[in-house]
């Protein structure tokens, strides 16, 4: 692709609005902490623990990335 072709491309626009990042970070991190508490108070069924742990880990990771992007550390 030449420079002229690149200049004619539309500007980048993210799939998730930047204004929504603080809310996404708050909800995801609160849900991760709630699931972690839920994990420590339930009976210890291995399959259920694994599912809750995976969901909590995903939410904690996504919430952390959203929080970093909110404060200007674009990862």
Protein structure class? mainly alpha
- Helix percentage: 55-70%
User: Helical element count?
Assistant: 3
The largest sheet, given as strand count, sense and whether it forms a barrel, is: none
Estimate the global geometry from the Cα principal axes. Answer: elongated
CA-to-CA gap between the ends? 27 Å
Outline of this structure?
It is built from three helices and no strands.
Description:
With 75 residues, this protein is mainly alpha-helical. It has a domain at 19-70. 68% of the residues lie in helices and 0% in strands. The protein contains 3 helices and no strands. The protein has helices at 3-7, 21-41, 46-70. Helix 2 (21-41) runs antiparallel to helix 3 (46-70). It is found in: Membrane. Component of the oligosaccharyltransferase (OST) complex. It is a multi-pass membrane protein. Belongs to the OST5 family. The chain crosses the membrane at residues 20-40, 52-74.
What would the keywords be for this entry?
3 helices, TMEM258/Ost5, 75 residues, Dolichyl-diphosphooligosaccharide-protein glycosyltransferase subunit OST5, mainly alpha
């Amino acid at each position: 692709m030449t420079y002229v072709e690149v200049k004619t491309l539309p500007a980048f626009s993210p799939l998730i609005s930047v204004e929504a990042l603080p809310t996404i970070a708050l909800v995801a991190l609160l849900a991760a902490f709630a699931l972690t508490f839920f994990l420590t108070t339930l009976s210890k069924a291995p399959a259920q623990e694994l599912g809750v742990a995976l969901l909590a880990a995903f939410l904690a990771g996504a919430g952390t990335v959203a929080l970093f992007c909110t404060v200007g550390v674009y990862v």
